[in-house]
Specification:
Blueprint lengths: L4 H12 L5 H14 L7 H15 L3 E5 L5 H7 L7 E6 L2 H13 L6 E5 L2 H4 L3 H5 L4 E6 L6 H10 L3 E9 L2 H5 L1 H9 L3 E9 L6 E9 L2
Parallel strand pairs: 1-2, 1-4, 2-3, 4-5
Antiparallel strand pairs: 5-7, 6-7
Helix pairs in contact: 1-2, 1-5, 3-4
This protein binds ligand OZS and magnesium ion.
């Protein structure tokens, strides 16, 4: 049967990127998505904003919701110092299988823990599973109607602390209106919008950075 787009993306990485070199994995995926097949990676333009926020926060504990093929997982993990941990959550086993191989090819498997499951089930188990108290940084890039319920769940599970940073992809396209309304109007968050473009296109999109105020 015909391969899937994630499988074709992985093949491009294995054939064209330098093993153990995260930057070359990132560039190979961006080239593939621009010249062969578009895919819903955060991309190079928004990816540079993601990089700058990760460097600014330099998190000890980080959570990514929505691994997909592992592109943003590699972008984040390559910037984390040793001894830090990126937990990435993926619901779809086929996507998780591809992402594991992309992360491994980039040589970042020791910095990343990919967990398969639904956010509603896994978020309440994070503390006991990983022995963490709170997350310094959360990147939201999963189903857009899950952004709001999942940050409320993170709050409810006391997994956020004063100063925890949330960075959300696609707040314009496809859009996350309820999430945006909440983080921009809640007294528990200070938010700012980073205007950019939908990956590999000229369509407007952006990232919303929100600081949890406790
Ligand atoms: O729909 C988009 N993204 C949805 C992304 C969804 C991804 O998040 C996973 N997930 C679901 N729940 C979890 C949890 F939380 F359980 F881990 C993880 C899904 O299996 C999928 O791999 C999207 C669409 C466009 N676009 O232009 O259409 C552009 C983008 O950048 C996008 O991110
Ligand atoms: Mg996205």
């Amino acid at each position: 049967t015909r391969s899937t787009r994630p499988q074709r993306l992985l093949k491009a990485v294995q054939e064209k990127a330098m093993k153990g070199d995260p930057q070359s994995v990132i560039s190979t995926i961006d080239y593939f998505c621009r010249h062969s097949e578009w895919a819903m990676n955060v991309g190079d333009e928004k990816g540079s904003i993601l990089d700058s926020v990760v460097c600014e926060v330099s998190p000890t504990t980080a959570l990514e919701l929505g691994t997909y093929c592992g592109y943003s997982t590699v972008r984040i993990a390559r910037l984390l110092p040793p001894g830090t941990q990126l937990i990435t959550l993926e619901f779809n086993p086929a996507f998780a299988a591809v992402a594991r191989q992309v992360i491994e090819y980039a040589g970042l498997h020791n910095k990343v823990c990919l967990v398969e499951g639904a956010s509603g089930d896994m978020i309440p188990k994070m503390r006991e599973m990983f022995g963490i108290k709170t997350f310094d940084f959360v990147f939201l890039d999963h189903w857009k109607d899950r952004y709001l319920p999942d940050i409320k769940l993170l709050e409810g599970c006391q997994l956020l602390r004063k100063g925890s940073i949330l960075l959300a992809d696609n707040v314009i396209c496809p859009g996350t209106p309820e999430y945006l309304e909440y983080v921009r109007n809640s007294p528990h968050y200070k938010s700012m919008y980073y205007k950019s473009h939908l990956e590999y296109t000229k369509v407007e999109d952006g990232l919303e950075k929100s600081v949890f105020l406790g």
